[in-house]
Amino acid sequence: MDVKNKALLELLKKPGNNSCVDCGIESPEYASYNIGIFICSRCAMIHKGLGAHISKVKHLKLDEWEDSQVERMREVGNLAAKLKYEQRVPNCYRRPKPGDPQSILEEWICAKYMREEFSRPERQTFLSGNMEGFLMKRGKEDARYHPRKFNLSEVDGTLKYYVKETGEPKAVIALSDVNVAFAPAKLGHANSLQLSYPNKEGVTRHLFVYHDDPQTIITWYTAIRCAKLHSLQVAYPAANETELLECLCQDFTCEGWLWKTGPKPSDSFRKRWFTLDHRKLMYHENPLDAYPKGEIFLGHMMSGYSVRVGVPPGTRDDLGFTFTVRTPQRWYYLSAPTSLQRDAWIQCIDAVIDQPLTAHDKITANRLSRNKKYGNIFSR
């Protein structure tokens, strides 16, 4: 390692340079020397795909550097680059974090350096409040995907989709109620989303969609988030923006297979796909079910909600990695495949019930309490 490489490692120690400028992961090993930023190996691959006319990438230790290139890194650095390329990122835009789906990271980097959306706000089409187009949607009763027209209207506060392009909408979804989560592993498609919302009966409905173009799916996702924020600001004028941002579309807190008993301690365990969507703990027979078999509202710990390792004496414990979710109306006996997964579920649920309820949480609780379809749906 020569003098130039050592100089680059010294630059890494400066504030802002010790984490990837694009995803935030610590100890970046690469740099884009024409832009003047330090990036991780994952982001470096995306930068290389942009083309050398946009981003020129080198490894900090393994590649040879010219004096002018090192000087460029010294002149700019991550903090200065963020001021230029992220100066007008809307609060409703989801900034990527380590471990996020690839499409989120790719489109964030393309938006920053190729399309320059955050230094030229007129290019931010997702802020228009309206969007219309086709997405491939999974059938409710079968595994086939069909093109369906979707329409987003911030003025109406709705997201609609149509089976027939010129007919009446199949569903009219209130933006204040919808959650949109990325689902590449579940659907087996890199650019896929899961939309969840309460139907007319108050039961959560899941829609599974994808698009072959990552920019299109990210634009839909971001447009829904931004329109939802504006709808929430109208619905809750006294709420601060930080509280409302927490209500925007989020990936599921925790998801995976668990075993669940019936209400009687002697009931056997049955395998179910569990999804923790903020304060809703839902369980399904299969990951791609259109509806959950049940929904459990998780309130605040001071209102009688808790989660504990193990199950009460006399309860079947065939699987070993059991835990109990307690609500004021019922105790739920669950089991995870491993102790690590059990502990992860307990940690996620604990974090939820430790937080005070927001105004939007109380609406969700009231909706679930009015739902009579499932006898095991409770709220408080």
Automatic annotation (TrEMBL):
GO terms for cellular component: cytoplasm; plasma membrane. Coiled coil: none annotated. The keyword Transcription does not apply. Residues 128-229, 251-354 form the PH domain. One of its GO terms (molecular function) is zinc ion binding. SMART domains: ArfGap (SM00105), PH (SM00233). Its main location: cytoplasm. It comes from the Eukaryota. Residues 6-126 form the Arf-GAP domain. This is Arf-GAP domain-containing protein. It comes from Laodelphax striatellus.
